[in-house]
């Protein structure tokens, strides 16, 4: 921990007031995170748990209700609008739906040139050269510059989305479910591309996803979110090996198993428990109590806060660390589930790289 | 620009017979209006009292009016003026409406003010605007254009505000914002171009209505004044001779009917195309 983190989020909150004044929805409820230089932090959780809102609030696409965000030592939430716009070249977004996030009326060249124009980077010739360079960097050809979004395949569109994010040479890229709208075979290509770019350009990623197979593949550390809070942060190895929060264990168990014979074995008897709505306004008690298989009386009274159970492994659970979790969560079973998914992604990536661009233009 | 041309080609490819006929009629009328005076050597203002109120014949292909002026020449001149008035009204009202609609969509604080003021404007009938403006600055083409543009503006603004509101929650706008661009650039480069197809459809429909409304204003004497050849004015003049020389009033009225019908049909089919693509 010698170098300062690229991004440090402290106690970030975003509360939405119900329109009738009836209550508060705590979409993000005191999230604290750090992303080191060159690190990929994955933010995982079920849909609606506040992953995307956290990222958007941290970089002020949505105004947060409270908290502090330091990006490269600058307080992002205190910046004046013009300063914030200038700052945006240092952190960029890759969005989930590559078709929706590209303006349908602009060709790819114009889309990639735009960040350079906005930040007044280079003259016309330099910008054109940069656009060509970006296209090559993400595995497309210079001739793609004249195409429109509807003329490209899903994978190619997302490559352009990534190229746009890299145009201004940012140090942090927030990838908001960058592959969940893509075919599995294309997912593998795009994930490989992101890993290669990270290594080549020294990027840091905040990687939002609900796919643990993807997490295992790209992330260094993982933060698990539930009802607007972080319930566990650990390195990929220890999170997949020894999940300390019962929710994390459930998430790992819920990773789709491709082999029908194994699907039975990995069945979780608690899986049918009703999913509660958003965390209610009253903050007493752990919001997972209703779905938790190992809850004790204390869980309903007192919300757990994050505490370290090992070096770099934090968990917000009264029973975290006590657990070897019940049967289906044993290390061997878990890691083999993850291993299978990983192996499949690897196979697809190999198959894909052997017919790289060919494949991309056929898949849509 | 390329995208617009491609859109247009796509619309033509997918369109039915009605669209093509309507488009051909609109284009044909436009060409006649532009080229007419140089092709048909008929003076719309040459008086010849010996040959007044004649039916169609050799001297005047579509007959003459009460002052012996050839109706064909007057129709062409009237078409020019009527279309020009309509175009000017839609262009002025449409661009003002576009700017106001975008501003209302983009600045929530300005939204209420802009829309309430436009609601007030909208509550006056066009004809009343015409009366007020004629009372202030006298009858004429300017009064017609002003009142038609004023009544087009709030309708366009509402349409654009709704469309821009939809576009602004799309991902590409958020992507553009996350690049760090200014509000103005975001609006003009990203939101506005994606509202244009709606604007074009709406303006086509509105053009038909505006031509009709302009002719009505001229017919009741609030618009262009005789001897200027304008379709509404011509109908008004010809109505005095409706029983001995019906063609004097009917021909310009028929031309108004054709313009309005073609514009409405074209606008409807354009809307169908745009809607289908949107869904």
Automatic annotation (TrEMBL), chain A:
Alphabetized UniProt keyword annotations: ATP-binding, Nucleotide-binding, Transport
Subcellular locations according to the entry: Cell inner membrane
Record Pfam families: ABC_tran, oligo_HPY
Gene3D superfamilies: P-loop containing nucleotide triphosphate hydrolases
UniProt signal peptide: none
Keyword ATP-binding belongs to the record: yes
SMART domains reported for this sequence: AAA
Membrane topology recorded in Swiss-Prot or TrEMBL: Peripheral membrane protein
GO molecular function, one term: ATP hydrolysis activity
A GO CC annotation given for this chain: plasma membrane
GO biological process, one term: transmembrane transport
ABC transporter domain boundaries: 7-252
Family: Belongs to the ABC transporter superfamily.
Name recorded for this polypeptide: ATP-binding cassette domain-containing protein
From TrEMBL, chain B:
GO biological process per UniProt: peptide transport; protein transport; transmembrane transport
Residues annotated as transmembrane: 21-40, 83-105, 117-137, 195-221, 241-267
SUPFAM superfamilies, per the entry: MetI-like (SSF161098)
Classification via InterPro entries: BP-dependent_transpt_permease, MetI-like, MetI-like_sf
Bilayer disposition of the protein: Multi-pass membrane protein
Subcellular localization, as worded in the UniProt entry: Cell membrane
PANTHER family hit by this protein: D,D-DIPEPTIDE TRANSPORT SYSTEM PERMEASE PROTEIN DDPC-RELATED, OLIGOPEPTIDE TRANSPORT SYSTEM PERMEASE PROTEIN APPC
Protein name (database record): ABC transporter permease
Species this chain originates from: Gluconacetobacter liquefaciens
